[in-house]
Amino acid sequence: MPGVGRLGLVERTAPADLARLGWDTDAHVELLWSLSRAPDADAALRAVVRLSEALDTDWDQLDAALQKDKTLRGRLFAVLGSSLALGDHLVAHPQSWRLLEGSEDPEPALPSAAELEAMFLDCLDQNDGPATLHELRTLYRNRILVLAALDLAPTVEDEPVLPFAAVGVHLSDLADAALAAALRYATDTVGKPDEPAPTLAVIAMGKCGARELNYVSDVDVIFVGANADALETRVAGEMMRMASETFFEVDAALRPEGKRGPLVRTLDSHVAYYQRWAKTWEFQALLKARFAVGDAELGRQYIDALMPMVWTACERDDFVSDVQAMRRRVEELVPADVRDREIKLGTGGLRDVEFAVQLLQLVHGRNDEALHVASTVDALAALGSAGYIGRDDAANMTASYEFLRLLEHRLQLQRLKRTHMLPAPDDAEALRWLARAAHVRPDGTHDALGVLRKELKRQSHRVSRLHAKLFYQPLLESVGGAVELTDGMNAAAAERQLAALGYQAPASALSHLAALANQSTRRGRVQAILLPTLLDWLSDTPDPDAGLLHYRRLSEGLVDQRWFLATLRDESAVAKRLMHVLGTSAYVPDLLLRAPEVIQSYADGPSGPKLLDVEPEGFARALVAAAGRQSDPAKAIAAARTLRRRELARVASADLLGLLDVRDVCQALTSVWVAVLQAALDAVTKANTPPDGAVPASIAVIGMGRLGGGELGYGSDADVLFVCEPTPGVDDTKAVKWATVVAEQLRALLGTPSVDPPLEVDANLRPEGRNGPLVRTLASYTSYYQQWAQPWEIQALLRAHRVAGDLELGERFLVMVDQTRYPAGGVSADTVQEIRRVKARVDAERLPRGADPNTHTKLGRGGLADVEWTVQLLQLRYAHQTPELHNTSTLQALDAIGAAELIAEGDVDLLRQAWLTATRARNALVLVRGKPTDQLPGPGRMLNAVAVAAGWPEDDGGAFLDNYLRVTRRAKAVVRKVFGS
């Protein structure tokens, strides 16, 4: 007799258990070898011991049967080694083992749906009182036992493998039989002899409706009543209660209005609801609707009335947005830390298959009745036969789906609990059990556990890959000149499918696909491999049409760059990030066309995406150095533009991908402008230096506005002042004249029209505005500010900061203006009053005609101007006594205001949040539209794109706008309070 270790028995009690059963002799070798093949031999042995004790004197009958009936051995040991719950059931009902005995038929047939219903109704008729539910429960569990035994037996003995589809069909038939008994029971219990019997039709939904039910699953139903009166509602409620207590959980939440809606509706009420109120997901759910039990004629009328609506659902205005929202909700249901273990909702899981198949059915089902099937496996076969997906892809997806469903069944059988969670990767014993229970065999290289791990990885990857390919590979074939179109996926069908996937101009999208894939070169072949996945990622972006156009332009513009397609092919992180950027922004693609090397930095480095490897200070030094190597000012500016373009592309890409905080974005954009100003000043100064090398004056560039505050956005100009100081021995007039030439050339060179984002240098904040001299000496500025400074000029100086040129001169300028902007004793009450008057005028007059004051990010309610004016008013009033307010940054000044308790900390936070929210929105507007604008758009695709670009967690423009309005409304209340005090 073999040792227990060789039999797969590892528990210390195994020898004693074998002795107790009398299985420790050589006469039981064959029986023990069968036991050893059970998924968990120890669990099976323990259950047999308990079963022997429950049978008592009848144990000998089972013992003898096991020794002579190989089929019984295979079924019993497989069940006991796979399901603790069914082992408990057998111990509680020990005579049920006889249901597992073999027969002369090598492939015993399962009872038909009619035979199962007769069993349950006979059981109901033969029992009265409390015993009824117990007997029905036992009958249901016995039928599960028989099915599981046939399903599991091949793990122990060489019995035929039960087809996967047959398991789901039988479980659904079993559910129907149980529902029929529950409906009869409820009718007899609730109804009265003098009342007419209620007319109810029970519609099965979900997996039961599709006849692909799990071993443990809720059974989703919808009730249709002839009258929807109190009696029919009571019967339906009692049916649900009885079935849920006896068989399985019955869920009616898929009914119109969900749990808030009436449990029973008339047919007319159902039709009216679906015509007027139903959401896309409700039509998707109806794909699996099937009459189950009750009044067959009413059930038929329900199906006939509602199914035509299902096949026109894809024409609804909100179909695409609803589909995308459903995909996001499914993904968000699964915590990230267990996503790899979730075989239903995780990436590459069952829901990915079901969702893809159902979407394709909804898109093409109106024109092709062959797709009017409920089962996922049947739908895959129909889609493949009609050419909407490749036949090989359909077969591979079906194999992956059935494999994952098989694992789901085994996990649920273990304790008859609903679960979709694989064991933890480090739980080798649990995974080894699962492998054996799922018929996974060693392959000569790996044991069963190794094969399972390899297969899980392979199947998940295949589902993820095919998920995209199912949608897009046939589209590529439909535009391929060398590919013969099938009757299914013709051009019209391809356009329907693209429209359902979010493409608003499907004909244009098809032309882009044709241009990309219809190439006989290696590039065309690579594109054909890449495009299904790229298109899938693009469909999740706010504007897939624009994204596809941008991708085509990039591909054509980089046709000579072999690294481009190779990088997208080999580094999926780069490709996915690029698609997100292209489908969200009109600003970045143009930059990438002229700075394509930035795309390579989308890849991951040792510490994260390489986009973050550049420090703004290091970039600034590199730009100034590169420009400084050119002798011609125009060439120097061109070199500066090249590096600026690259840096703008890097910063904007990182921003869109959520890698940079808005503060970091503003700091980086400010560094770009400062570097460009310094490079331009150096180049023009060099060009205007006299032959003797002695320049007439030193020049400092003072940043004003957002440049001075270090808070530039993508659409910001550079507000500056030019200050000069004559070289010793040079009179002021000559110095100022020379410095003015330098400043004018700098502005002209930077302002030269270019395909890049503009470089406008604005000097209108200088003394006397546009009418004043472009450049003044430090002494002239000092004299002006001491004698003539207007309140608005004092306010503007709060943002003054040296940014380029002679930094020592710039520092002396700042020390000088401190006396004006932070005077001892503070600014006068008249100045404060004038600031308030000007603010009121700005509110009344400056908003552009037609702009919405609630959503204008700069001048609107609670927008940037409101917050900045409020901060600056507090600085004017209190900076003389609070040195921390000597700060050009709005956010840092707000921190100082809060620390000094000048206003309540809650008000400070409201202003801070409003500034950050408006800045994000303003930057996002430029990223999305490609040009400066301050007005948020109305509801629609553009607003959704702005929401995504602004870092809103969902592309829900409505929620983003609601948040913007709420934040700015609260900030406006603070603004009114501060300006009124």
From TrEMBL:
Domain Glutamate-ammonia ligase adenylyltransferase repeated: 75-301, 576-814
Residue ranges of the region described as Adenylyl removase: 1-475
EC number: 2.7.7.89, 2.7.7.42
Protein name: Bifunctional glutamine synthetase adenylyltransferase/adenylyl-removing enzyme
Organism (species): Mycolicibacterium chitae
GO molecular function: [glutamate-ammonia-ligase] adenylyltransferase activity; [glutamine synthetase]-adenylyl-L-tyrosine phosphorylase activity; ATP binding; magnesium ion binding
Gene expressing this chain: glnE
Source superkingdom: Bacteria
Family: Belongs to the GlnE family.
Adenylyl transferase, as annotated region: 486-981
Cofactors required: Mg(2+)
Pfam families: GlnD_UR_UTase, GlnE
